[in-house]
């Protein structure tokens, strides 16, 4: 399943569309298998930064939307 997901996503993160850059033991880490913490359902493959970010925002759409609005407000374009 991982291999199929990796091919479908062209080896890139499902959120930022970038390849993984974090290293472990001198090698680039594999993309993380993201899952819904309530249901256990697999969602997609994510880079370390996006996977950690979702965790820090507690998988909350509302908190993520609030963060996006905050960035927009303070970007000088909002």
Main beta sheet: 2 strands, antiparallel
* Order of strands, widest sheet: 1-2
Total beta strands: 4
Distance between the termini: 41 Å
Strand content range: 15-25%
Silhouette: globular
Helix amount: 25-40%
Tally the helices.
3
Structural class, please?
alpha+beta
Describe what this molecule looks like in 3D.
It contains 3 helices and 4 strands, in the order H-E-E-E-E-H-H. By secondary structure, the protein is an alpha+beta fold. The strands form 2 sheets. Strands 1-2 form a two-stranded antiparallel ribbon. The chain starts with a helix and ends in a 5-residue tail after the last helix. The relative contact order is 0.15. The model has no long low-confidence stretch (mean pLDDT 94).
Structural key phrases:
two-stranded antiparallel ribbon; two-stranded antiparallel sheet; 78 residues; single chain; 17% strand; 4 strands; alpha+beta
Helices and strands in order:
Blueprint: H1 2-8, E1 23-24, E2 27-28, E3 32-35, E4 42-46, H2 48-56, H3 61-73
Short description:
This protein starts with a helix and ends in a 5-residue tail after the last helix. With 78 residues, the protein is an alpha+beta fold.
